[in-house]
Design goal:
Elements lengths: L1 E4 L5 E8 L2 H7 L16 E7 L7 E8 L4 E9 L10 E2 L1 H15 L6 E3 L6 H8 L2 E3 L2 E4 L1 H11 L4
């Protein structure tokens, strides 16, 4: 998958991997993240980092809900230096969300991914990723999920 250097617009190869319990404990003291990721220990937590480096650029916590044929994004966060206008690397959330869409297809859920956004992020998720609002949740599925996968994951 391609991440992008915000300064040079150069593509950089990234990788997403499952976070271990030991890594979650270490994240508790990590000032690069606002959330206490150790609280997500009962969910599937994944990290994104550059192919040739171990520094975690972003994290996502997933809850598989097979009886509803969907995956719920419980929490998603980019590291401090990769947020906002001054971010160093772009496409972190897009890659993590697309990874989740791909996982939802592999699970037979037609790419159904849900999340409960902060109010100020509703339009961002709609515009940036094609989520639709369903009550207090937002969802992406089907063709929109496929488009996200092809845009952000390109080579898998």
């Amino acid at each position: 998958m391609d991440l992008i250097n915000a300064e040079t617009e150069e593509k950089i190869k990234g990788i997403i991997e499952r976070v271990s319990l030991i890594e979650l404990r270490k994240l508790k003291q990590d000032s690069r993240f606002i959330f206490d990721w150790y609280q997500e220990k009962n969910h599937e937590v994944y990290k994104i980092h550059l192919l040739d480096q171990e520094e975690i650029l972003g994290l996502i916590s997933l809850i598989d809900i097979p009886e509803e044929f969907r995956i719920h994004i419980n929490l998603i966060e980019s590291s401090e230096k990769n947020k906002g206008k001054g971010k160093k690397i772009k496409n972190i959330p897009g890659c993590l969300i697309s990874f989740t869409c791909k996982k939802a297809f592999l699970n037979g859920y037609d790419g159904f991914v849900f999340l409960v956004p902060k109010t100020q992020l509703i339009s961002y998720y709609q515009i940036q990723y094609g989520f639709i609002q369903i009550g207090n949740q937002m969802a992406v599925f089907g063709e929109t999920s496929k488009l996200l996968i092809s845009k952000y994951l390109k080579d898998g």
